[in-house]
UniProtKB/TrEMBL annotation, chain A:
Domain of life of the native organism: Bacteria
Gene3D superfamilies: MetI-like (1.10.3720.10)
Membership in a protein family: Belongs to the binding-protein-dependent transport system permease family.
Protein name listed in UniProt: Sugar ABC transporter permease
Regions crossing the membrane: 16-37, 93-114, 126-146, 177-199, 236-255, 285-305
Organism expressing this protein natively: Streptomyces qinzhouensis
Automatic annotation (TrEMBL), chain B:
GO molecular function: maltose binding
Secretion signal, residue range per the UniProt entry: 1-20
Region annotation (Disordered) ranges: 24-52
Lineage: Bacteria, Bacillati, Actinomycetota, Actinomycetes, Kitasatosporales
GO cellular component: ATP-binding cassette (ABC) transporter complex, substrate-binding subunit-containing
Species per Swiss-Prot/TrEMBL record: Streptomyces qinzhouensis
GO biological process, any: maltodextrin transmembrane transport
Entry protein name: Extracellular solute-binding protein
Amino acid sequence: MSSLIVRTRRSFSTHWYAWAMVLPVVIVLGVLVGYPLGRGIYLSFTDANEANMGRTIGDFSVPSTYTFVGLENYWNILSGKEGSFYPRLTWTILWTLSCVVLHYGIGLGLAMLLNRRMRGRSLYRVLLVLPWAVPAFVAAFAWKLMYNTDNGVLNALLGKVGVAPVDWLGDPFVQKLSVIAVNTWLGVPFMMVAILGGLQSIPRELHEAAEIDGATPWQRFVHVTLPGLRPVSSTIVLLGTIWTFNMFPIIYLVIGQAGGTESEILVTYAYRLAFQGVRDYAGSAAYGIVILSLLLVFSVVYRGMLNRQEAAK
Amino acid sequence: MRKGMTAAAIAGVLALTATACGGDGGGSGDSSGRKAATDPQSVSGSITWWDTSNEAEGPTYDKLVAAFQKEYPKIKVNRTSVSFDQAEQKFKTAAQNGKGAPDVIRTDVGWSAGFANLGYLQPLDGTPALDNAADFLPGPMSTAKWKDETVGVPQVTDTLALLYNKEVFAKAGITKPPATWDEFIATAKTIKAKTGVTGTQLNPEGYFSLPFLYGEGADMLDVDGKKITVNSAGAVKGMETALKLAASDVALKPASTDGYVAAQTSFKDGKIAMVINGPWSVSDDYTGKAFKNKDNLGIANIPAGPSGTAAAPIGGHNYSVYRGSKNKDASYLFVKFMASAQSQELTAKEINTLPTRKSAYTAAVTADPAKKAFQQALSVAKSRPVIPGVGDLFVAFDQHYVKVLRGDAAPKEGLDALAKEWNSKLLKDYSIG
């Protein structure tokens, strides 16, 4: 213990300037991340809501009357008593999985195409990156218009070939397919750009050597390209998973409030808890912490898996 | 014992300081409105007003604000346009923080009780804001009360009525609008058979299903008995009527997204002969090709259920003053001015709103047949339950109503599920049934 103090003191006296440099960042992070997180964790152990939080407004003043309830909020969520956690978790996982698989698959395909030498390559790149440059809420509203049952362009096209109009955002199942399609459109460009970078960092000699050894294109893809992409892939899949798991605007804006709660993912539901009716601060805080924990566990397991694979090689 | 007394004493002192603080801001934060009542011209300062009206209505309110500032040159009013969809949450956030909240806000009648329950609204009884209270129609006035206090001044009111296409009716040989839901369905059938025009299209929002429930003598809640009655036998019957209509071949299928716009567009274009809608839609109807000739638009009271009762919900807006406002005198004067009979008459004439004051239904206002018809429709209108967050009930209501109309859930099943959802989330202290 004392050696630790001594070591800290020594490191402080030699590296004081490093500490000084880091200090502003630590303070800013503490204010912007640490405090809200701590407050959120605290609230999740209480029964705080808008009505029992203390407030003074003009001549009207009430003291706080919320109490500490321990793990009750978490118990309500995890025991299924609250009713909507497990069905929503299942859909959130399905949503994340299908989106990430589609993002990665299509992104990889497009990157492979763009990695060839061809005329107008930079133009294609710009066009394919375009969806990424569009703010998510603009994309959501544009797609919502296209999905409109009576006046949307999709049903107009279907009508031209004699297919009956589809209720894109009304039917619970089609609704889910619709939002997955929007998010795929939105997420592919990022994957494509990242994978393209990865592809270009694979030394050309590896491919040439494999070709001389008589490897088929498929064999070269599996044994040269994919392993070469691993560092990039592992990072973007992790990022993609976290982003998609918490992809708020697409679900919230495309489906809207009235379309049905079955297609809501965990974060949009937590938002509704926090901003509907008498605001349930405690319940939504507990939801937030549960979501955070799920993602933390996922990241740790995923990194562990990758490290083991790396070690096995 | 001693300890308890000390605690009580401290609490008392704290309470005193708190109230003293409230009074301290007294010069400006005084909520009695004495200054505004006795010497209105001496009131000065600036106030912010959150206006949730739409773009088309804006210029009329700008005109009113200008007239107010001319009358009270020392007061400056900042009219801030806030989107109706976001105003409720935005106000709640600002009011709770005590920062950025406006002095005066235009609230939906469904929000008043919720805001007042959290202490965000200034009670207006005895202040100059509530001018000649007896002049207000009882329906709109009831939406501005919370417990025994008046927390808003009714600005505009509205209700639902049956709007129909007179030309199509004449072609089908129908001389008068249907008075019951059964007649409504029969009329739709005749029109389809004789003219080929579809009868109607339902708007799949819970609010628009209320006439079906009211027609059976049912309601969403029994507030006094603390009961959820939305799944009562009568309500189920009403819902069955709505479903029968929606699923028949004389009605277009309700659109589950933007259902309001879909029904309104069909009606304007002459694709359907009848629609249930409110006075706010009349100006929009006139822009459609079916109503180029304004006389073609017929307006009748909402059809009745088999019990003979007909009723539609009351909607509308109130003006409220934020309890933390620093300039209450100016706020009171502004609310008084905006809710005056003259102001209401002007908005009625310019943007087709329905006044909340009896005296604002002047000859000039009722000369317009649409306004006269809606004034008539108000006579059978019914106030929604006054509870905090009544508007939030409709989020779940909309979802279950759509399911019923789509045929994904039977009426009884859908309403049972709705009652259960309200009970588990928003109305925990209510019983079902």
